[in-house]
Amino acid sequence: AQSVTQLGSHVSVSEGALVLLRCNYSSSVPPYLFWYVQYPNQGLQLLLKYTTGATLVKGINGFEAEFKKSETSFHLTKPSAHMSDAAEYFCAVSSRRRALTFGSGTRLQVQP
Amino acid sequence: EAGVAQSPRYKIIEKRQSVAFWCNPISGHATLYWYQQILGQGPKLLIQFQNNGVVDDSQLPKDRFSAERLKGVDSTLKIQPAKLEDSAVYLCASSDDGTENTEAFFGQGTRLTVV
């Protein structure tokens, strides 16, 4: 079985501040991990993914995430928030040809 | 390249009515997914197709939901009869080979409101 827990349904940061969105996963086999972003009335867009190899993964729009097996975590970060980053962010896990299992999402607000 | 196309974008129906959603995946993508996203929750897989065969429909409420992908290209998802709790966004996604490390591309979704 696989599952994802996202800590914090809402996160608010100031423009220019660090963004940290938390994700912990559970998987009985080595996982593949993803972060997707969803803007209002839009579908989901892939930000980044971890499959194998380097544990620090860089994605689009300046986001990155680090896979930490010992902590079963895959937290998403961005050094400096921009107003355009306001959206809903979903962490997801897949393994063994199974479809993505999503977390419940974190809504990011960016204050001017 | 063209993305995943879904229609309609919005649908309002009364409970006990039936409704159908359509999805056209990215050309050449063998795997197609239907997800249900209830307000405030993450998407939940309803059904996964590989070409025109079903890979996983374990979370599809088969007493009222059905889906088909007859020619291995586009797909329809039907609800009959609809319940109030079916109000959600229905997302279609596709990927080229369906392996766990390939990206799934999502359509904009169909927002269903059951009144």
Structure notes:
The complex is a heterodimer of chains A (112) and B (115). With 112 residues, chain A is an all-beta fold. Helices cover 0% and strands 57% of the residues of chain A. Chain A is globular, with a radius of gyration of 13 Å. In chain B, the strands form 2 sheets. In chain B, strands 2, 4, 5, 6, 9, 10 and 11 form a 7-stranded mixed sheet that branches. Chain B is globular.
SSE order and pairing:
The complex is a heterodimer of chains A (about 110) and B (about 120).
Chain A: E1 2-7, E2 10-14, E3 19-27, E4 32-38, E5 44-50, E6 56-58, E7 64-68, E8 73-78, E9 87-94, E10 101-102, E11 106-111
Parallel strand pairs in A: 2-11
Antiparallel strand pairs in A: 1-3, 3-8, 4-5, 4-9, 6-7, 7-8, 9-10, 9-11
Chain B: E1 5-7, E2 10-13, E3 19-24, E4 31-37, E5 44-50, E6 53-56, E7 65-68, E8 75-79, E9 88-95, E10 105-106, E11 110-114
Parallel strand pairs in B: 2-11
Antiparallel strand pairs in B: 1-3, 3-8, 4-5, 4-9, 5-6, 7-8, 9-10, 9-11
Tell me the helix content of chain B: under 10%
Q: Find the count of extended strands of chain A (DSSP E, 2+ residues).
A: 11
Shape of chain B: globular
Q: Mean pLDDT across all residues of chain B, rounded?
A: 93
Which sequence of SSEs, written as H and E, runs from N to C of chain B?
A: EEEEEEEEEEE
Distance between the termini of chain A: 41 Å
Query: Structural class, from secondary structure content of chain B?
Result: mainly beta
Helix content of chain A: under 10%
- Note the overall shape of chain A: globular
Q: State the separation between the terminal residues of chain B, measured CA to CA.
A: 37 Å
Overall mean pLDDT of chain A: 92
Main sheet summary of chain B? 7 strands, mixed
Low-confidence stretches of chain B: none
Which residue ranges of chain A are poorly predicted, with pLDDT under 50 across at least 5 consecutive positions? Answer: none
The counted number of beta strands of chain B is 11
Radius of gyration of chain A: 13 Å
Give the C-alpha Rg of chain B. Answer: 13 Å
Largest sheet of chain A: 6 strands, mixed
| Strand composition percent of chain B | over 45%
Oligomer class: heterodimer
